[in-house]
Design brief:
The strands form two sheets. Strands 6-7-8-3-9-10 form a six-stranded mixed sheet, sandwiched between helices. It has a four-stranded antiparallel sheet with strand order 2-1-4-5, covered by helices on one side. It has one domain: Rossmann fold, CATH 3.40.50. With about 270 residues, it is an alpha/beta fold. The structure holds adenosine-5'-triphosphate and magnesium ion. Adenosine-5'-triphosphate binds next to β2 and α1. Magnesium ion binds next to α1.
Length: about 270
């Protein structure tokens, strides 16, 4: 569905932020991208949403395809129309607008009826947001703002949702909740998700596939459950020492893995 093909990215003349990165996000799957600070995770999302230009970045080689069509030279607005939707780093909500107004702002292109259906489904997914629907978004907690940012993106009925570190700065319980939301969106809405995360244990738990970036290069990719068991990933990203003990609480159980889903179930 979404294919990143041999993509290299530079900022200005000197900084090479990605080098020959290739992987796919298959329809109906959750794929996570792991990697430390500066590994190129956000750059990868910008390459997909065609927003590199805004940051003086360019794709120097390779291409990005969505449904067989090259999208990396399109206008960012066209990519949004194709329902490939990015939730940027850092919970960007309109602080003075109410929760409800934030959601309504997310669905400007759809018909009024579709927007109503989408909004009702998003409130089902995030009951906390419905309780606070009249409050200014700026008064929500960090976790609630993250949920609102995701909810607003869901108003556009995405085919692919690009999430940039949704768990950043959140307490452990909320990180678990974000993981559940990713699974729910994938299963109930049929949305494919590219999940950028530094929280490897959560990300590997909720993903079908995983990609590891190290200083701009793809270091590893594969089935998420298998990567969670790999000694390299355990040592580097799961705080383990190559053994299994440290993963006792986080052990990925393939029985609990979200099933592969095909179809979107947006009403409309
Ligand atoms: N606008 C920019 N101009 C120049 N260099 C940039 C720009 N944005 C990012 N970079 C550089 O590109 C590299 C990758 O950055 P990127 O933001 O993609 O990393 P990241 O994996 O998202 O990191 P983090 O986890 O800290 O968000 C870094 O070396 C960074 O300094
Ligand atoms: Mg980043």
């Amino acid at each position: 569905m979404l294919s990143i093909k041999d993509v290299s990215v530079r900022y200005g003349r000197s900084v090479e932020a990605l080098r020959n990165v290739s992987f796919d996000v298959p329809e109906g799957e959750v794929v996570c991208v792991l990697g430390g600070n500066g590994a190129g995770k956000t750059t990868l999302l910008r390459a997909i949403s065609a927003t590199l230009k805004l940051h003086r970045g360019t794709i120097t080689s390779g291409e990005v395809e969505f449904d067989g069509q090259r999208i990396d030279r399109m206008d960012p607005a066209r990519i949004v129309e194709k329902q490939v939707i990015q939730v940027p780093e850092g919970r960007q909500v309109f602080g003075r607008m109410s929760v409800d107004e934030n959601l309504r702002a997310g669905g400007l292109t759809a018909s009024a009826k579709r927007r109503e259906i989408a909004r009702a489904r998003i409130y089902e997914l995030f009951p906390r947001l419905e309780e606070r629907s009249k409050q200014p978004a700026g008064l929500l907690s960090g976790g609630e703002q993250q949920m609102l940012a995701i909810g607003r993106a869901m108003m556009t009925e995405p085919k692919v949702l690009l999430l940039d570190e949704p768990s950043l700065g959140l307490a452990p319980q909320l990180i678990t909740r974000i993981g559940q939301i990713v699974t729910q969106i994938n299963q109930e809405f049929g949305t494919s998700i590219l999940l950028i995360e530094q929280n490897a244990s959560m990300a590997l738990r909720v993903s079908h596939k995983a990609v590891v970036l190290e200083v701009g290069e793809l270091a590893l990719q594969g089935n998420a459950a298998e990567l969670a068991e790999s000694e390299d990933v355990q040592a580097l990203y799961l705080g383990g020492h190559g053994g299994h003990d440290s993963l006792e609480h986080e052990r990925v159980d393939s029985q609990n893995r979200p099933p592969r889903r095909k179809l979107g179930v947006w009403a409309g």
